[in-house]
Amino acid sequence: MSECIFCKIVNKEVPSNIVYEDDLVVAFRDINPQAPVHILIVPKEHIPTLLDVTEENKHLISRAYMVAKEIAKKEGIDEKGYRIVTNCGKDGGQTVYHLHFHLLGGRFMTWPPG
Ligand code: DGP
């Protein structure tokens, strides 16, 4: 996916502030943070949306959530709490079509989202 910005970040063709990487996922700071801690956890494999998750790649979701938990501890937001968000499609507010999980914390968050 040569035009995908997150593929370019995963492949280090575009710079980003990477906070974690393993064989399956990369995590980096969001360019436009919506909270004191705003990190994106992204599977290395190009999966456009949640709708494209299959039996073959569903393990990437649990990896992303486990990584989010460890990053939350490292960033010191585990005790007060945090939010993980995945926007799916136009009405969900998705703007980058490479599956990602927003890890947000460091402030109180209201509900419901706007
Ligand atoms: P979403 O709207 O859920 O698709 O979120 C996309 C997020 O990606 C948004 O919060 C901004 C972030 N983003 C977009 N382009 C870049 C980039 O080039 N670098 C970084 N670090 N974040 C980006």
TrEMBL record:
Highest taxon in the source lineage: Bacteria
Active-site residues, record numbering mapped to chain: 100
CDD domains in alphabetical order: PKCI_related (cd01276)
Matching InterPro entries: Histidine_triad_CS (IPR019808), Histidine_triad_HIT (IPR001310), HIT-like (IPR011146), HIT-like_sf (IPR036265)
Gene3D superfamilies noted in UniProt: HIT-like (3.30.428.10)
Motif mapping: Histidine triad motif: 98-102
Sequence ranges assigned to domain HIT in this UniProt record: 5-114
Any one GO molecular-function label of the UniProt entry: catalytic activity
PANTHER family noted in UniProt: HISTIDINE TRIAD HIT PROTEIN (PTHR23089)
Protein name stated in the entry: Histidine triad nucleotide-binding protein
Annotated organism of origin: Caldanaerobacter subterraneus
